[in-house]
């Protein structure tokens, strides 16, 4: 067994008539789990009249309940104490008793005394002051108390308190990511207004001169969603018939729920971080907002979605223009927000209200060409449109909505020319 003693000089207590006891050592400091020994040398007088004095009972004790409790009968010491010496039932004027305690516990810290009873009437004696035993121990694995208990919410006040069973008492140090934190003298660490940046693993180390131990504790700070970021993909121009994804993301704890709305519409358009629109049309243009929410709060962000037109609508009055350069084509119905078209030439000027589904595909004419016209009747006008339409498309893609278009025709004798302007 391991022994760790701090021996101080033995002390002799001499009573009258030859009664006395000397303890060696008088103080012991030992580690938990080790084994210690202490000894008491004692004397007692002869009874005289040629009667031999015998020691009839000898015991060690640390507790007194009217009468001393023999360590050998104390359940807390069961199997851990041994007595050695020449004290029991021997005739001796000078005897000793040695106590051995093994597998020391912190609860064994106490003052131990020796008591003996002789065959003489009233012949009993307890040695003073005894042996003071202090059982030391390196700190146990610390425990962490969080106050107040429950979920940790951003901006609240939180205190971490570290405690460990140790003898002598341990000192405590808090760490986060190998960085020493400030602490209060009682081993606690205080957050005046905890934030999401304080989320992480904290380590508490307890230490005394006999060793050290540590434990970790994860701080999970809950907070409402931050202002969400919103984006559209693919980036760039959005044209009718394509597909787009509206994406929303936000930092939140616990994780947030995402809902997409279109402005001025009560019903949600989609649930989740991504809102996908397929076969997009001009009706999808407008302001959308993403709302993020958890049990700690909510936030929202908006974006503007602009859908560029692929087709420009013309009128029945212009249907006879199919002949020039095959620039005008029938195609699908489109709800373009054109209001009217004006036709002008040197003979007449006549406004016509938009009513038709005759369309010119904007992206169909990448080149500018010049067309000469021989027919100069009022409703049969030939002019250069290809480059004109392309330029209009460029402007329209940039501006978004086109509200009206004007086509001007100038009679020039054997030919005619025209120009078109897109007005937003």
UniProtKB/TrEMBL annotation:
Q: Which PANTHER family match?
A: B-CELL RECEPTOR CD22-RELATED, VASCULAR CELL ADHESION MOLECULE 1
Report the CDD domains cross-referenced here. Ig
Task of the protein: Most highly expressed siglec (sialic acid-binding immunoglobulin-like lectin) on B-cells that plays a role in various aspects of B-cell biology including differentiation, antigen presentation, and trafficking to bone marrow. Binds to alpha 2,6-linked sialic acid residues of surface molecules such as CD22 itself, CD45 and IgM in a cis configuration. Can also bind to ligands on other cells as an adhesion molecule in a trans configuration.
Gene3D superfamilies xrefs:
Immunoglobulins (2.60.40.10)
Source organism, top-level taxon: Eukaryota
The subunit structure is:
Predominantly monomer of isoform CD22-beta. Also found as heterodimer of isoform CD22-beta and a shorter isoform. Interacts with PTPN6/SHP-1, LYN, SYK, PIK3R1/PIK3R2 and PLCG1 upon phosphorylation. Interacts with GRB2, INPP5D and SHC1 upon phosphorylation. May form a complex with INPP5D/SHIP, GRB2 and SHC1.
The UniProt record lists the Ig-like domain at 139-220, 225-308
Q: Which SMART domains match?
A: IG, IGc2
Name-wise, this protein is B-cell receptor CD22
Entry-linked Pfam families: Ig_2 (PF13895), Ig_CD22 (PF24518)
Q: Which organism is it from?
A: Myripristis murdjan
> InterPro entries given for it?
Ig-like_dom, Ig-like_dom_sf, Ig-like_fold, Ig_CD22, Ig_sub, Ig_sub2
